[in-house]
Sequence to fold (92 residues):
Amino acid sequence: TAKPPRTITRLGIARAFQIPQLFLDQTVMENMLMAAAAHRGNPSGFSRLDDHPDRAEMERLLDLLSVREFAGRLARELPEGQRKLVDIAIAL
Fold:
């Protein structure tokens, strides 16, 4: 397409790498909300994640991939397969 990656992602196309790219010292929900804040282009979203406006949507995505039960756990505590599902939820 000759378009830069940033332009392509703004069109709604996302990718997930073979090895999950998560913040291991953050909870699954924090990882999701940081991705949502970055997607919105709102760096201030990184400071107040507890009342982020996309929380319900992130919970829905975790439900979709059957990993919502891990939302409060640190990413490092998850088995690799669960980390990959969270990584896919972030891409979605």
